Amino acid sequence: MCHHVELADTGEAYTCGEEESALHALARSGRRGIPVGCRGGGCGVCKVQVLAGEYRKKPMSRCHVSESDEAAHQVLACCIVPQSDLQLRVIGRMRKAWQAPAAAHAPAAALAPPAHTEAVSHTACIGIGRTVPRSLD
Fold first, then answer.
1. Lower Cβ count inside 10 Å, N or C end of the chain?
2. Looking at beta carbons, which pairs linking 125-130 to residues 24 or more positions away fall under 8 Å?
3. Order of strands across the sheet with 74-76?
4. What is the total count of domains within the chain?
């Protein structure tokens, strides 16, 4: 059974298969509207708020979706499978891992990564609050 998914901000609509994530179905349809990142629940780029409808959740990084986010139906589009028609509002934004959310209005010098990151591409969020540096090699 397919479900109808609508993006509230743009009115963009597409269908989603019964075992397909909301993000995968959007990409398959060739439409745009939700930022695409890792597609596995780890980057937080595809964060949406479910305004209407029922969905099943897959595991998501607690670095990007807290328990209070989940309670407010703020989830990652790559990790939800519609169980009915859905209406979504996009709230995810692309941001470098080292850039703090408030840094968007900071001077450019404040946005530079710390000097020790020359040997590390970025710090990846894993599970609940643990980080593991990833080498550039």
1. C
2. 125/42, 125/61, 125/63, 125/64, 125/97, 126/42, 126/61, 127/61, 127/62, 128/62, 129/62, 129/63
3. 13-16, 3-7, 86-90, 47-52, 74-76
4. 2
Q: What are the phi and psi torsion angles at 94 (to 5°)?
A: -75, 135
State the DSSP code for 19: T
Structure tokens at 48: 């949406």
> Does 76 lie in the same domain as 127?
no
Quick one: how many helices (H) and strands (E) in the chain?
3, 9
pLDDT by residue for the chain (137 residues), tens only, comes to 899 999 998 888 999 998 999 999 999 988 888 888 888 888 888 999 999 999 999 988 888 899 999 999 999 999 999 999 999 999 976 544 433 444 444 444 444 444 443 333 334 444 444 444 444 44
Strands 86-90, 3-7: pairing kind: parallel
**In this structure, what token pair is assigned to residue 55?**
């969905």
pTM summary value:
0.66
Domain range for 130 is 110-135
